[in-house]
What we know:
By secondary structure, the protein is mainly α.
Amino acid sequence: MSAMLYDLGAAAAQMCAPVPTAAAGGWTDWLDHWQTLLGAAVGGVMGVAGALIVAGAQRRREQRVAAGMVLPDLQQLDAARQRLEHRLSRPHEGMSQQARETLHAMRVVETLRFLAADRPKLFALHTPTIGQLSDVDARLYGHLFMCQMVHRRFEDTLASRRTLPDGPQNVGQRDYDLFANWKLCVEHAALARFWLENLVFSPWPRWVINARLKRHLAGLPDYPDEPVQSPDEIVKRSVHLLRTGAIFRPATAGEAVQP
């Protein structure tokens, strides 16, 4: 029985065609060659991608450290602005032009005297730290750079003044210019703080923040004549200031264009 089964198996093996073996240089060699090349290419791409991710994470950490150093200076300027706004009288409807001019002169006197006695002492804003934030966003760096320049000019001018006006009748053009520099400085500081908190300290990716804020610029020419409070309006304030170099006024809002 075993011999018969052996003979049947041998006969079947002779009847079947032999399986061809791959010759040298055949499809197995081709597959092995391209598999090696593909593995090297994918490995190289993944290595570059990993290096870019690590470099990007390191850069973001450096930007957050730089932002953390600059933010207290901006907060000091914004706090001083708010304290002054609470102290100063505001014009109201029905005031004559002369009364408005006198009130404005009084605001100049009170502001300069307050700042001469107790003004913010800034540090990081006047160091190369802000240069580390230059590639975060052009609007942020523009406000930081202009805030630094205007504040330096304001400090130098105020330090050189031996006397300050003691009443609205003694206010001169130099006093008005110094007051205008202060207003411009704190406006740049407030807007720089807005961009810093949204682009550096926000948990959302920057492209999400930019996409969300970009649509707010469409209605700039039709800017409403009302107090600026919402983030939408702050974006328009920022665009107007960077484009025109002047603090936003409802009557001149249409002069700014989209970046």
